[in-house]
Write a structure and sequence with these properties.
With 254 residues, this protein is α+β, with helices and mostly antiparallel strands. Helices cover 32% and strands 14% of the residues. The strands form two sheets. It has a six-stranded antiparallel sheet with strand order 3-8-4-5-6-7. A two-stranded antiparallel sheet has the order 1-2. Helix 1 crosses helix 3.
């Protein structure tokens, strides 16, 4: 057996013993900036059950925070991105995630229509949006202008960038992934603004390498998104802030 396999086997056993013991329930709260062995075990568990963790390094960064928030949402516990006792308990009993189980966000607590449920999740790497549905998508997106931003937000009470896109598409019967890096796998990549059409998705590198922010292209060089500073709003791709951070567009319109 290779040394890497032995190491991984040891990690798996250690993780299982930790989560099955009372130590997990008494573990300190973990949040952004935390580091150490317990963060390492947390990252490995999240990765093992199907959440996006590229680096298992014992450092609680943005990627880990997003994975924790997604796990909390799936488990229907308070979404904070912070690992507390309730999250540790849920992790202890968590099974491998079936992708797509949370692609349709819940109806908001206030009197709002529930999203229309669709069938299979959107295929990766292919157009998913019929041209005839584009006006409805854009109209729905504009309905929520002014909605405040909240990390982990996925309802009209508050949105984060990818939660906003997922909700808008779900309202129109289309199921797309929850996170920006997964949404970036949809459609055909295009780096030219001239190739974008209304309804396509646009992505940016902001606080970390790779797609960490996203929006919907409206046409005329404008896109709508849930910004962390001012909530859902319309901005220009050529603005001094967004232009240098533009990663590329994904052509999803058929």
């Amino acid at each position: 057996m290779k040394q890497s396999h032995i190491l991984r086997h040891g990690i798996t056993i250690g993780l299982a013993l930790f989560l099955m013991s009372g130590a997990a329930l008494a573990s300190p709260t973990l949040s952004s900036g935390s580091h150490g062995h317990e963060v390492f075990l947390l990252q490995q568990k999240l990765k093992d059950i199907g959440y996006t963790i590229h680096t298992v390094d014992g450092v609680f960064g943005g990627e880990t925070e997003r994975a924790v928030a997604q796990f909390q949402r799936d488990q229907k516990i308070r979404v904070t991105g912070v690992v507390n006792n309730a999250t540790w308990r849920a992790l202890r009993d968590a099974k491998v995630r079936k992708w797509g189980s949370d692609i349709v966000p819940p109806a908001d607590a206030i009197d709002l229509p529930a999203p229309q449920k669709s069938g299979a999740p959107a295929p990766m790497g292919k157009p998913i949006l019929a041209q005839g549905k584009v006006p409805a998508i854009l109209q729905t997106a504009k309905t929520y202008i002014g909605t405040p931003y909240k990390f982990g937000g996925a309802t009209p009470k508050a949105f984060d960038c990818s939660g906003y896109l997922q909700y808008v598409f779900a309202q129109n019967g289309l199921s797309i992934p929850r996170t920006a890096d997964e949404q970036y796998k949809l459609g055909a990549r295009t780096s030219s603004l001239a190739q974008l059409v209304p309804g396509d998705l646009v992505f940016f590198e902001t606080y970390e390498p790779g797609p960490s922010h996203c929006g919907i292209y409206l046409g005329g060089g404008e896109f709508i998104h849930a910004s962390s500073s001012r909530g859902v709003r319309i901005d220009k791709l050529e603005s001094s802030y967004w232009k240098p951070r533009y990663l590329g567009g994904k052509h999803i319109v058929m």
